[in-house]
Design goal:
This protein has 286 residues and is mainly beta. The chain folds into two domains: 175 residues, no CATH class; 99 residues. The protein is 8% helix and 35% strand. It contains three helices and 16 strands. The longest helix is centred in the N-terminal third of the chain and has 11 residues. The radius of gyration is 19 Å and the shape is globular.
Length: 286
């Protein structure tokens, strides 16, 4: 008798609460972009990040998120697009690193649990500064954002937070993810300040085939999408093996300074190694 090997079930996380209220949900990323609620205000930075089995191409983890087009990033886009000369650098690079402390709960929270001042978590892959916002239940229909009350060092298994009451039950394994801020505008140094052993990769200047445009008229309907597959050397790329938690749309292909980063996704961990590739898609809607 032969045992049939069934494909591993894909984990699909959507970090956008209105999606979870829909009775009929978008089935693809383009449809997710189309349903994005422009009542949120301003320009949007929408991401799909997929960890792929390097051998079969099957998705293992898929994340859709609307985090975040920064204030400075929106200005950079307009200044580059509307100018009296061709800009010296356009936003044609994707960049990933392991600077953000995305983790999971190791002790559950009960619905209505009061005076919660500490979260027990799996060892942090990167530090989380004091005063950071972190989201419980990232990528699901039930989330809660709380604030750290002290620095949580890399490797720590607990996070101190300002006292809160749990708005729902959060099970062991629930995602705990730092929230990117609209004011993000890092220097090249503090872009990596939370990580003692940085793993990073730039896509390099992308060719025209990496870009597509939807020129539908009307506010929020004009979009530009960029796609890149991060692979290690065994699989035909140059990305170092490691777990990646942070992605940016940038306008340089190597070490950058202030104002080079415009659209930031803090993500659950995505793995690049001989068995895994990471496919990143960023759509800007204005």
């Amino acid at each position: 008798m032969l045992d049939l090997l069934l494909p591993e079930k894909e984990i699909h996380l959507v970090d956008y609460e209105p999606y979870h209220r829909l009775s009929v949900k978008p089935r693809g990323f383009k449809e997710f972009c189309n349903m994005y609620d422009q009542k949120e205000g301003g320009a949007a930075g929408l991401w799909e990040v997929v960890q792929l089995d390097a051998k079969t191409g099957d998705p293992k983890i898929r994340v859709w998120s609307n985090k975040v087009l920064t204030d400075k990033g929106a200005t950079n886009i307009l200044e580059s697009a509307i100018s009296n000369a061709v800009p010296s650098a356009v936003f044609n690079n994707l960049y990933i690193n392991n600077n953000d402390g995305s983790t999971t709960l190791t002790t559950a929270l009960t619905n209505g649990q009061t005076s919660v001042t500490s979260l027990a978590v799996a060892a942090l892959p990167a530090a989380i500064p004091s005063g950071s916002q972190i989201q419980l239940g990232y990528g699901t229909g039930q989330t809660q954002t709380v604030t750290t009350s002290a620095l949580a060092n890399q490797g720590a298994t607990s996070i101190s937070v300002t006292s809160f009451t749990a708005n729902a039950a959060y099970a062991i394994g629930a995602a705990v993810v730092p929230v990117p801020q609209v004011t993000d505008n890092p220097s090249n140094a503090n872009l990596k300040a939370n990580q003692s052993s940085v793993v990073e990769q730039y896509s390099g200047n992308l060719s025209s085939g990496a870009f597509s445009t939807d020129s539908t008229t009307g506010a929020g309907n004009r979009s530009r999408t960029v796609v890149f597959l991060f692979r290690n050397s065994v699989n035909g790329g140059s990305t170092p093996n490691g777990d990646y938690t942070s992605l940016w749309l940038v306008n340089v292909s190597s070490a950058a300074g202030v104002n080079n980063y415009i659209d930031h996704l803090v993500n659950t961990k995505m793995r690049v190694d001989n068995s895994n590739n990471v496919n990143a898609t960023c759509t800007i809607k204005i």
